[in-house]
Write a structure and sequence with these properties.
This protein is mainly α. 48% of the residues lie in helices and 7% in strands. It contains 8 helices and 5 strands. The strands form 2 sheets. A 3-stranded antiparallel sheet has the order 3-5-4. A two-stranded antiparallel sheet has the order 1-2. The chain is globular.
């Protein structure tokens, strides 16, 4: 038996609690990354909610908590409880594709933001690749602009800025969240004024020392290069943890099925 909402009815999402965001984010993520184990059992929802990779903040959610959040999402029409063909155990699936007009890329963006929160546009692009392929940065900006227009996403600067940070906009009004500071305008080094020697005056052959602004730009570029390397290393570690989590989910599902066969 399937608990399915009407497909044509869309829902306007403005805020969700921390627990609701985590459960919904997990269902979205696993539907993208491990469709062979989706829909998820309650145990798999808890495991995905509490995993340490691709999560910010790390949570400790119980099965009772997850079941309560899932029920709240079901009442909103964002989640459904379904049964497999064998009818062994209840499983959960999201209905974001049915209930919102978001594209696959937009759903992947929201998934990443729900699970990890505020992040740079570069990190966001690299992290959603495990769910969907976004061909270019301009394409990502187009999807983000649509989500911003819909009120689901916010940014602290123009999306053309490399240092811009992105976050979802589904926080509850009473949550104590860090504000999104507006980045100051980028410092632009003034163009060097050519030095013209006065008539009959000697011109020094000593090169001019780099300006403080040029030194700052060089330091920023060096830091960005270091951050890119660290991000690449971190992504490799996250992928390893994701693979381990996927295997754990597979084993938990197999255990649940075995327990149901044995009448446990």
């Amino acid at each position: 038996m399937h608990d399915e909402p009407e497909q044509e009815k869309l829902i306007e999402i403005t805020e969700l609690s921390k627990g609701q965001r985590r459960v919904l984010g997990v269902l979205l993520e696993k539907a993208f990354t491990t469709p062979e184990y989706y829909p998820l059992t309650l145990k798999a929802v808890v495991t995905g909610s509490n995993q340490k990779s691709n999560r910010m903040p790390v949570m400790t959610m119980t099965e009772e908590d997850a079941e309560e959040f899932a029920e709240q999402l079901r009442e909103m029409g964002l989640l459904a409880v379904v049964h497999t063909e064998t009818g062994r155990s209840e499983r959960y699936r999201h209905y974001m594709r049915r209930r919102t007009p978001m594209t696959e890329a937009q759903l992947a963006i929201m998934t990443e933001l729900l699970l990890r929160g505020r992040q740079s546009i570069g990190d966001l692009r690299s992290r959603i690749k495990r769910m969907v392929e976004v061909e270019s940065l301009p394409e990502l900006r187009r999807e983000l602009n649509t989500l911003i227009d819909m009120g689901h996403v916010r940014a602290n600067a123009d999306l053309e800025r490399r240092s811009v940070e992105i976050d979802h906009n589904w926080y509850r009004t009473n949550e104590n969240i860090d504000p999104m500071p507006t980045l100051p305008a980028a410092a632009v080094a003034p163009a060097a004024t050519p030095r013209v020697a006065a008539p009959n005056s000697p011109v020094s052959s000593t090169p001019a020392a780099p300006s403080a602004s040029n030194e700052l730009v060089q330091r920023i570029e060096k830091l960005e290069s270091t951050c890119e390397k660290l991000t690449a290393t971190n992504q490799e570690l996250e992928q390893q943890l994701e693979d381990m989590t996927r295997e754990l989910t597979r084993l938990e599902n197999a255990f649940d099925d075995l327990r149901q066969d044995l009448g446990g």
